[in-house]
Amino acid sequence: SPLPLIPYFEKIIDEFRELSSENHSLSFHSDCSNCVTHINQKLLDHIVKNLLYNAIKYSPQGGRIAITLDCNREEIWFNIQDQGIGISPDYQEKLFQPFVRAANVGTIQGTGLGLSIVKRAVDLQGGRIKVESKVNCGTCFTITLPQILVPSC
Ligand code: ATP
Ligand code: MG
Question: Which sequence ranges are marked TM in the entry (predicted)?
Fold first, then answer.
């Protein structure tokens, strides 16, 4: 059955607001009031939660994180934008590979696996992932997923 996306995002974002002990401010905005997806919720959880967790982890205390969601008949897409440490251009493509972590992570802990799982999940659904980032300014990940699932033969 189709998953209504606005309540889905609102619930996860509320969970992350409670999880963030460092007063990050998370905002959510969507212009489409009744976006749905047919994508498996567990798979979508991997995508959304890994990206939100990164946005919090790689942002300073009090950083603003903005989540926006939109859809049309063919696709849904969402942005997760932070004001964190950023990713230099030479790492922006590589970090979808397992165990790759950028040089500017400093003492922030991680295994380097989250984004490789995100990429795999997005690929499995025939979607796309885009990263735009500037060191010391912030990062925006955009995920686009098709609305119509292509039946497998
Ligand atoms: P984990 O496996 O616990 O998620 P991780 O966060 O290090 O560990 P990924 O989520 O795969 O691993 O991210 C890979 C690398 O990409 C990070 O180590 C970091 O260098 C960079 N990165 C990911 N998201 C962000 C972000 N929002 N801001 C800045 N750097 C990021
Ligand atoms: Mg991570």
Answer: none
